[in-house]
Amino acid sequence: MADRGCPLEAVPLPAEVRESLAELELELSEGDITQKGYEKKRAKLLARYIPLLQGADPSLQAENRVPAPTQTTAAVSKQRKPRPPSSRDERFRSDVHTEAVQAALARYKERKVPMPSRRRSALTHSSVDTSTPPDTSSASEDEGSFRRPTRLTSTPLQSHSNTEPWLDRVVQGSSASSSASSTSSHPGGRPAATLAGPTAHAHVDVHSAPPDVTTGLMELSHRERPQLASVRGVARGCSGSVLETAGGVPVSSRVSSKIQQLLNTLKRPKRPPLKEFFVDDLEELLEVQQPDPNQPKPEGSQMVLLKGEPLAVGVPWPPSLLAVLQRWGTTQPKAPCLTALDAAGKAVYTLTYGKLWSRSLKLAYTLLNKLTSKNEPLLKPGDRVALVFPNSDPVMFMVAFYGCLLAELVPVPIEVPLTRKDAGSQQVGFLLGSCGVTLALTTDACQKGLPKAQTGEVATFRGWPPLSWLVIDGKHLTKPPKDWQPQAQDARAGTAYIEYKTSKEGSTVGVTVTHACLLAHCQALTQACGYSEAETLTNVLDFKRDAGLWHGVLTSVLNRMHVVSVPYALMKVNPLSWIQKVCSYKARAALVKSRDMHWSLLAQRGQRDVSLSSLRMLIVADGANPWSISSCDAFLNVFQSRGLRPEVICPCAGSPEALTVAIRRPPELGGPPPRRAVLSMNGLSFGVIRVDAEEKLSVLTVQDVGQALPGADVCVVKVEGAPHLCKTDEIGEICVSSSATGTAYYGLLGITKSVFETIPVTAGGTPVSDRPFTRTGLLGFIGPDNLVFVVGKLDGLMVVGIRRHNADDIVATALAVEPMKFVYRGRIAVFSVTVLHDDRIVLVAEQRPDASEEDSFQWMSRVLQAVDSIHQVGVYCLALVPANTLPKAPLGGIHISETKQRFLEGLLHPCNVLMCPHTCVTNLPKPRQKQPEVGPASMIVGNLVAGKRIAQASGRELAHVEDSDQARKFLFLPDVLQWRAHTTPDHPLFLLLNAKGTVTSTATCVQLHKRAERVAAALMEKARLSTGDHVALVYPPGVDLIAAFYGCLYCGCVPVTVRPPHPQNLATTLPTVKMIVEVSKSACVLTTQAIMRLLKSKDAAAAVDVRTWPTILDTADDIPKKKVTSIFRPPSPDVLAYLDFSVSTTGILAGVKMSHAATSALCRSIKLQCELYPSRQIAICLDPYCGLGFALWCLCSVYSGHQSVLVPPLELESNVSLWLSAVSQYKARVTFCSYSVMEMCTKGLGAQTGVLRTKGVNLSCVRTCMVVAEERPRIALTQSFSKLFKDLGLPSRAVSTTFGCRVNVAICLQSPCGLLVKSRQMHASFLSDSAHSRCYGRTTKAPWKPNVRAKLFSKECASPSVAHGGGAVSGLKEDPCSNQGRQGSRCPGAPRWHGEQRPSNSVLLIY
């Protein structure tokens, strides 16, 4: 080792020690010694020399800073031959070290690329040192052994163009300094020792973390990698403050970096984390748009909580709104309350406060005392009642609303359904069903206009629960007694009313508002708007919801105001009607939308006699929309000359959850002057506020919506993640904490907590208040003077890439492109669809009828250019549809969610389409890359080689049946039935229900036994059958089928159950019956009289040859009254018991032979798994003709002794709630059904859960609801069923699935779990979960059904699959439960794959 440079050469080693070290290295390289043994022997050899090294004088080391050139010359001249590939690459050789460093520096100088990066294990992820430049690694000794807290203070080579500070550490720390470094690696012969100088004097922290021995390996290209030598000589753990290399260059480190590399080489590799074993080499590598480093970021300080002005103190607020109504109704009965206008603009009726009070009392009395059902009141306090009134009848709506409040009922205002297929009608029906609404209030005229059924009654709308309709016109109400008074006179915590809201996805939810919140909101609006008694308010908005309800129906009563309601139909005919009413009634306030102001501008020409000087507040309800400011400005410019003052315009913002969020005050009420902001659209897309020049195109000008409501606290939180407070220049969601907000989504506790119980926190995680906040769904910020600015809504938010865009902004941009010339009435819808895991913008517009195709594409091209230049985003699809074809909202707007649904389903039928995917789909998949290093497949194979488990599972073992065991004595089902008939003759086994839920047939143990004896006698005497003959049983689902089955077993015949033909479809179903009878070689057919006539009818003769039927017996008339002489007992358990025939979905007929032993083992395992005992009742809603359905219907009750409540699935077509009612009535803990039954209940009863609850249906008794099928679990259906009937008490984990195939009908039972699996990986038989997975039901849980063992086999090679792969399932049963006792039977049938291609190399998957 004399030629090797290492830190120990300052202390010469004896020759024998050097030889011993060389031998150790040779043994280690050839594998003759382990690493641990090598370290021990090496440490023993060097132990005596370590103190000499540690005691070296640092001052002497500093003097030898320039190494002697002789050692270097000798080292360079000796070139080692390349080692064989089997040698250890991690070990470095010092004889070529100098040449390696020089070559590396030369490459860096010439190519201007970073030094080669460290070699990192494919199985570990180590952190990169902060002092290492990007994508580089210095491989220096001191860099790996300590951390530098500061950068170098001085570097003489700063003038050198290609030298960086980290390069100093590379050269200083490399072992090149151990040799003659006078050989220059840079042009000009600059010595490397000079490079090392400044670094040696750099300040380092010697008290930093211990050396990292898992990183620091240098990786060079295979073609240019020199063979570097590892330094041996210091034992593991040896350290020193200053070490000296052979060349005299000191290395300031605790541990020599050569020793660190040595330890890193010899260290046993760590076991990688578990997730590393499942790295997906089939990962769908989509381009992920990286954040732009130059994108604007919020720079302001954290916002503080904005507190609204307090509610007025000392004002005598009334105890409730109803108390106010009673006061005005009795003290000011002739004061006008509401004036209704007809379509011509004439006042048709003025409702006074006296009439409102008296009519509301009559309605409340009628609702509570005159509506009965089965001699019981139909309604009780707290029940929900639907209010169905047109927008042209505010008077009757107001009477109905206050009548419900006086009766302590909860009104649910909804829109009038015009047709059975109105847009969003099904979601409204779901809301009514979830609220338990059974009664709807309406007027006589409205009821006559509703769609009617053939019986003349109001038709049942799609998705609506059954409703009773009550007309509340005067002649239908009963006058209450004089001494009758309503009980509700104070503000309570109970629900006052429910206001519906439609979400972005189209779902409809109900926001509950309590009596206390209702009163607080009216008080806050009164103070904010300065309402006073006897003021007149002109209302153009919908009086059933939002600001129209809050101001025009509720707050107006609190202040005894007079409201003039302008219907929507009048606005379409005369847009100036509301201005005319303001002028004629001298209205002090008006409630409009920017749409109404825009229409008025278009129709104002020629109107010279109008004056708006009486207005003190013009409330713009949609002041948050981006186009409202232009409408307000244009309206002011035109009507300022007619008495309209600028300070009168008062925009406001609100949401169904938070009610009114903010409203601008007039100056006389102390409000600050209005403000507007010109914001950069680019900044808004990144969620930050950047003020821009107004003359630019890509800006958004917004106006303030005023100050927060009195008594409210307002803050802005981040849209995504935890509700952290935003910065002052950051866009977020506005949250409100007040006593005047909604309280919950009715019946939806999960989303209620996330919306109505938000706790905003600071950056440090401290809550800003001890009161919960309500999310408003409005995006905005707090501006100067504590004014609230709204820039959009969450429902219209579209996240394209990493940027946010608002649908209203896109609509405003499209409307700016010649809207009057092309777009029909400005009807434009903008929404987003998901393409490649990202939102894509879709714009749909109605074109004018006279627009040509050339005009269409010219307009679309201009819209694309405008959106791209202003919003910097591409439009995925721009579609034009004919006029009046888009689905409409109740007030004539576009129903966005329904439009989106039609677009996705291909039902939009556009006349012109312009697709531009190339401008917006920028995250196309990357090319596939080969997995580096060791891939997951190698790891799995390694696990298999190492003895890890393969993909197998097993159920618990059944005890071996001994001859003395009672189970052996009653091994055969006929023996079990005889034993039960003798010991428990009156114990009920079967109970059959009809469509009405009444019991049509029962069977006790002795009754079934006697009926089976009579069937056996008929087969032996009339049919003259012998033992082993096959008998076809063609029965509808019922007890007759069960009796005929056991009758066949009693006489030794083999029954074959066959589904009877359908009377209306004989041509299709009868040939299947005939085929099963012929293939099974049945000698006789047992059936009922009706089916026997059908089999021999003329219609049957047209489908099959009726002359070839075997003997047909009617078990109702042809059965004798005597018993069979002797009951057949099989001589062997392997004797055939029955044949199980079924037709696959592809039309293939398959039959399975079931022996007596297999039948008994099947029943026994089901009994143990489902815990079936004689005292148990189970409900079965399955077809009893094959598979597990037949076993549960006919076999298990006899074997286990439990009572089976039989519900034929065909009866559910007449009564869809029959099955669930039976489960509730008989309190069945276990129930079985099929997917068709579950789907029928989900679709048919989705909106009737409230009705079922009123009928007493309670599913809390259900412990397990199992779906029987031979297909992949339909996890979406089972989850929907669980969520839907959770309100009826169904436990969330009760619904599970069974798994089986044609050969093994019940491989496993009971498991409600699920698993996320990537569909593409399933196609390749490899499973892993990720963010883009779909959910598959899991049908297994340990233990499986007793006595079952299953393995996954590869389809191609028939070898066991590893634990995380896919393959064919093989079911093994010790007792011959299937396929005539043949063990290890392969599942022959493949499942039906819903929506996905079946995996190419697997038959069936179990998860």
UniProtKB/TrEMBL annotation:
For bias type Basic and acidic residues, the affected ranges are: 86-98
- Identify the SUPFAM superfamilies for this entry: Acetyl-CoA synthetase-like
Compositionally biased intervals (Polar residues): 151-164, 1398-1407
**Chain intervals for the UniProt region annotation (Disordered):** 60-214, 1359-1407
In this protein, which residues make up the domain named DMAP1-binding? 9-127
GO CC, sorted alphabetically, is: cell surface
Q: Which PROSITE patterns match?
A: DMAP1_BIND (PS51912)
**Pfam families the UniProt entry points to:** AMP-binding, DMAP_binding
Q: Where is the composition biased (Low complexity)?
A: 124-139, 174-185
- InterPro entries according to UniProt: AMP-bd_C_sf, AMP-dep_synth/lig_dom, ANL_N_sf, Dip2-like_dom, DMAP1-bd
Family per record:
Belongs to the DIP2 family.
Q: What is this protein called?
A: Disco-interacting protein 2 homolog A isoform X6
